[in-house]
């Protein structure tokens, strides 16, 4: 009985929940009036209850991952999806550039983490402009520049937000063609500017201010993973480099803390493929295969900005359904 009580105490310590005031202080939360603060506090308390209930299941071995309070805990899942998605609606001729077919290789490593090679740029924070597609593609291209050209570059997300679609609005949904349109834009445009010449403003500006003399990277083509093929995704990530992906998120994904995220019902929603990010590696943790995914919600999210998502579990959450990568 004593060891059981000690176990309960240790579990409680690990998942100790912050109160409302400490949450506000840690994440620098300021609300415009008392009414808004009360509204946000109720959402926070509701989210906190769900987080604690999930972590009880994790502690009992009924879940492969834990969740925790982060800087988004005063938002609903619907608000997080609305905030994070973004859109890309330019009517381009997708696939007009040559798209090489991936050639299977027999030297695919059993695990890889491209961060170990110094080719993954720091975690970004897209803030309140729904531009996950732009952050994900910029992060992917930056890594490929480092791998194949030996350069560390910081590219402009704002260049894509302003220029891929002249009617872009930070309040649109994630378009199914967002990745294709954006990669095609970089090809047709002969490059993307450096962030130092085209700073991120985290909002819709409306006018495209691209300058060819400030180009930081170009790509020759882009390719797609065969829809749903996790083995091909593994081969590309393991032997070519990071890959841009879209997938479906839910409440638990928003507040992921550690472990391997798996949701057997994540595609049963009207909001499928509601987020874009970058697969920068894969491996196995405690018997669970995972994809190492780089997010764009700052370092408060997940494991310093990263999440491990289930691999080899029937393409969970559609992670291999819409996957693209560049050729330099």
UniProtKB/TrEMBL annotation:
One of its GO terms (biological process) is proteolysis. This is C1 family cathepsin L8. CDD domains: Peptidase_C1A. SUPFAM superfamilies: Cysteine proteinases (SSF54001). Residues 108-327 form the Peptidase C1A papain C-terminal domain. It comes from the Eukaryota. The keyword Cell membrane does not apply.
């Amino acid at each position: 009985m004593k060891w059981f009580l000690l176990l309960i105490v240790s579990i409680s310590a690990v998942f100790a929940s912050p109160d409302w005031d400490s949450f506000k202080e840690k994440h620098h939360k300021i609300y415009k009036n008392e009414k808004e603060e009360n509204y946000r506090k109720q959402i926070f308390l509701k989210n906190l209850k769900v987080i604690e209930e999930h972590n009880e299941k994790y502690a009992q071995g009924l879940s492969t991952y834990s969740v925790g309070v982060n800087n988004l805990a005063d938002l609903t899942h619907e608000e997080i999806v609305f905030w994070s998605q973004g859109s890309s609606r330019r009517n381009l001729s997708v696939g007009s550039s040559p798209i090489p077919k991936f050639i299977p290789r027999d030297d695919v490593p059993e695990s890889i983490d491209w961060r170990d090679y110094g080719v993954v740029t720091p975690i970004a924070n897209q803030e309140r402009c729904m531009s996950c597609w732009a952050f994900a593609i910029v992060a992917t291209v930056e890594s490929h520049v480092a791998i194949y050209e030996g350069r560390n570059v910081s590219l402009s997300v704002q260049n894509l937000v302003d220029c891929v679609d002249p009617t872009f609005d930070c309040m649109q949904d994630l378009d199914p063609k967002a990745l294709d349109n954006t990669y095609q834009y970089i090809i047709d445009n002969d490059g993307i500017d450096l962030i130092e010449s085209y700073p991120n403003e985290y909002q819709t500006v409306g006018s495209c201010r691209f300058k060819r003399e400030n180009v930081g990277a170009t790509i020759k083509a882009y390719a797609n993973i065969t829809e749903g093929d996790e083995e091909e995704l593994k081969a590309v990530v393991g032997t070519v480099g990071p890959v841009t992906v879209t997938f479906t998120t839910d409440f638990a994904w928003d507040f992921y803390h550690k472990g391997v995220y798996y949701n057997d019902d994540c595609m049963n929603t009207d909001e499928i493929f509601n987020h874009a990010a970058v697969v920068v590696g894969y491996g196995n943790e405690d018997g669970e295969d995972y994809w190492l995914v780089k997010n764009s919600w700052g370092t408060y999210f997940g494991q310093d900005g990263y999440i491990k998502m289930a691999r080899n579990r029937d393409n969970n959450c559609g992670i291999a359904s819409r996957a693209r990568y560049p050729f330099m």
